[in-house]
Amino acid sequence: MCRWTIDTARLNWLKGRGLRPVARFHTPPPANTRWRWKILPAGGSEILDQSAPAVLDASSRLQVLPAFFPPLQTNLAPFTAFVLQGWLECPSAGTKQIDLDFIHLFPLENFAYFQPVSGLDEEHSLVMDWPSGELYTANSATGNKSITHLVSGTPMVI
Rg (Cα) of the chain, in Å, rounded? Predict the structure, then answer.
């Protein structure tokens, strides 16, 4: 579906950090659509690495995509240019349309992902207390706590 060449200068800036891509679609993707990354050498066709397919949420325009790490080559030149390909897979037959606005590549560290378990409405606030590691939803009227999300990742340092 899409393809980028990541050059050596940008890779040297990343210093081997993993990346967590986040995509925004103009319209939500079709049901049962899966996203997969493939990493190839610049100018080559051999697949160096690929992610497991991740099912996209058909009800959301904002999608957290599978994380990936830039490839390393040798100790002398640790970061080498590569091609990053985004692949979409859909098990059902027929023509599908994907309206992709953008993909941001965030560093894997200092990134927290909050996975919804149940809904959150205007009566509730999502609270993350990083020092204690506690994540809960607080009812603004009663102060009662409940669990509506699971968190993965590390605290964001600003």
Answer: 19
Separation CA 47–CA 40 (nearest Å): 5
pLDDT digits (tens, 9 = 90+) for 99-140: 999 998 887 777 777 888 887 888 888 888 877 778 889 988
Distances (CA, A) of 33 to 51, 67, 141: 15, 17, 39
When the pLDDT of each residue in the chain is averaged and rounded to a whole number, the result is 83
Q: Rounded to two decimals, what is the model's pTM?
A: 0.66
Per-residue pLDDT band at 73 (split at 50, 70, 90): low
Q: Which of 125, 123, 122 is nearest to 149 (CA)?
A: 125
Using CA atoms, how far apart are residues 88 and 92, in angstroms rounded to an integer? 12
Q: Supply the pLDDT for residue 119.
A: 75
Query: Do residues 71 and 78 make contact, with C-beta atoms less than 8 angstroms apart?
Result: no
CA-wise closest residue to 150 among 118, 124, 125, 122:
118
β-partners of residue 126 are: 137
Query: Taking the domains of the chain in order of start, what are their residue ranges?
Result: 2-109, 112-158
Nearest by Cα to 96 from 39, 25, 46: 25
Residue type, position 142, single letter: T
DSSP state of 83: E
